[in-house]
Amino acid sequence: MRITYGPWGETLAELVAAARAAEEAGAEALWLPELHRSATVSAAAVIAGTGRAQVGTAIALAFTRSPMTTALEALDLAEMSGGRFVLGLGTGVKRLNEDWHGVRWEPPAARLRETVAIIRHFAAHAGSGEPMTVEGELESLRVRGYRRPFPATRFPLYLAGMGPVMTKLAGEIADGWISHELCSPAWLRERALPLLRPGVDAVVSAACSIDVDPAEARRRAAGLTGFYASVRSYAGFFAFHDLAAEQEAVIEAFRSGAGAAGLAAAVPARMVDALTLAGTADQVAERIAGYAGHATTIKLTPPVHGLAPGEIRTAQARIIDLIKELP
């Protein structure tokens, strides 16, 4: 099982420094999200500041760029990295696409399938000078009179998924599957792996909080847990873990106007224990080992929701220290 890391930084310089420290500690890949920063710009910065680890987007939003733009960015990043780049895509939710980015929301699985087909076709044929045509019901490519005059560096393409439809799609067409930030070993074994074909890289995203005091570690992870528990569409996930009542309490806190700190206060210890890696260094290492034999890659990330930068830095440093000690 590969140990990988999702670095954090209050500045891009700090982000790159954290990525470099994780690489030096032994992380085999570095993953950049898209929310407060552009995933592709962050990936470019980390590629420039590292030299060995893979660098991937986990995830870049699939529908807020055209498929051709996504393919161009991926080709550039693959070239810049000397083949270390991984394009990880996800759909986001309807509100994020329509209200935040002003793009249409259509059946996401069907649209993502067509988006992937266009990205791959463009990446494979952009240097030929021949017409490129991919006809889909939701996404199409019709390019003539174009030739990208640079050598193409190949890149793997991963898809994120939580529910069965997106996970199954990743299992069918992607090189890898990236889990939701909350993904227990039981969910991985029972709900995800049966939908992935052999050879797909199963990347488990694991929120990680380490402290000599397990209660303090749980406190840091509670805000992140509450953030995701406030999303009602994740009800099936929480019910699977016998946490339906606990999720409802978080949703009620969210409706009352609670911010990240308030949501954290509504999250009980058993919810944090079930869904994150929170505890002492030894406890977290043991929890990581629980994914062995099932996940092929684990992506460790520090908690950020409701925490001041100093606390995030502490959480990050402890994860990187743990990576040094993991087999």
TrEMBL record:
<dbReference type="InterPro" id="IPR050564">
    <property type="entry name" value="F420-G6PD/mer"/>
</dbReference>
<dbReference type="InterPro" id="IPR036661">
    <property type="entry name" value="Luciferase-like_sf"/>
</dbReference>
<keyword id="KW-0560">Oxidoreductase</keyword>
<protein>
    <submittedName>
        <fullName>LLM class flavin-dependent oxidoreductase</fullName>
    </submittedName>
</protein>
<feature type="domain" description="Luciferase-like">
    <location>
        <begin position="10"/>
        <end position="292"/>
    </location>
</feature>
<dbReference type="InterPro" id="IPR011251">
    <property type="entry name" value="Luciferase-like_dom"/>
</dbReference>
<dbReference type="Pfam" id="PF00296">
    <property type="entry name" value="Bac_luciferase"/>
</dbReference>
